């Protein structure tokens, strides 16, 4: 537990990852019904699912997925870069993007076994893009010198139980 307190970026990353899994499987109505699972698997790889939705609904869903995964990319960037102050390469970005895609794929596969959720390849794409934007934001923060200020803010949040619960 002390390790998590000492590494605040890693703690934020783990907490947000758990939040993503929690938030994307609400309301926790899981099923093993063969019909529902087959239907979800078909919709996962089908474009026809989107034909019944309005373009504004699709755009809003895509935007919310991107915004939902930006903090994941930011915290992951800060966790990786925070280990040592080294050059951050394109290979490091690729690792972040792959981890975002893997988490998104895991979440969508969990949704195959839910009653009220509908998994989608488009969600995987938009979540992965959000992860990438979060990593870019982390790099921008680092380049502009805001890392210390944000680090102090994160530290205040973790040192104050009220702030931690609210955040």
* Span between termini: 19 Å
Q: Which residue ranges are poorly predicted, with pLDDT under 50 across at least 5 consecutive positions? A: none
- State which percent range the strand residues make up: under 5%
Outline the biggest β-sheet: none
The number of distinct β-strands equals 0
General form: elongated
Separate helix tally = 9
Q: What is the string of SSEs from the N terminus onward?
A: HHHHHHHHH
- Rg, alpha carbons: 18 Å
Oligomer state equals single chain
Architecture overview:
This protein has 167 residues and is mainly alpha-helical. Helices cover 77% and strands 0% of the residues. It has helices spanning 2-6, 8-23, 34-44, 48-51, 55-82, 90-111, 121-144, 147-159, 161-166. The longest helix has 28 residues, at 55-82. It is elongated and about 50 Å long.
What attributes characterize this protein structure?
0% strand, 167 residues, single chain, mainly alpha
Summarize the structure.
The protein has 9 helices and no strands.
Q: Would you spell out the secondary-structure blueprint of this structure?
A:
Layout: H1 2-6, H2 8-23, H3 34-44, H4 48-51, H5 55-82, H6 90-111, H7 121-144, H8 147-159, H9 161-166
Helix pairs in contact: 2-5, 5-6, 5-7, 6-7
């Amino acid at each position: 537990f002390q390790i998590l307190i000492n590494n605040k970026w890693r703690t934020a990353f783990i907490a947000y990852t758990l939040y993503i899994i929690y938030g994307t499987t609400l309301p926790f109505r899981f099923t093993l019904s063969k019909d529902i699972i087959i239907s979800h698997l078909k919709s996962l790889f089908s474009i026809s699912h989107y034909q019944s939705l309005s373009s504004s609904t699709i755009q809003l869903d895509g935007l919310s997925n991107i915004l939902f995964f930006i903090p994941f990319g930011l915290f992951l960037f800060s966790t990786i870069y925070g280990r040592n102050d080294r050059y951050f390469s394109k290979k490091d970005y690729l690792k972040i993007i792959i981890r975002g895609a893997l988490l998104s794929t895991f979440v969508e596969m969990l949704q195959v076994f839910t009653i009220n959720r509908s998994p989608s390849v488009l969600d995987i794409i938009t979540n992965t893009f959000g992860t990438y934007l979060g990593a870019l934001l982390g790099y921008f923060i680092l380049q502009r010198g805001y890392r210390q200020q944000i680090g102090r803010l994160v530290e205040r949040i973790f040192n104050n139980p009220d702030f931690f619960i609210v955040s």
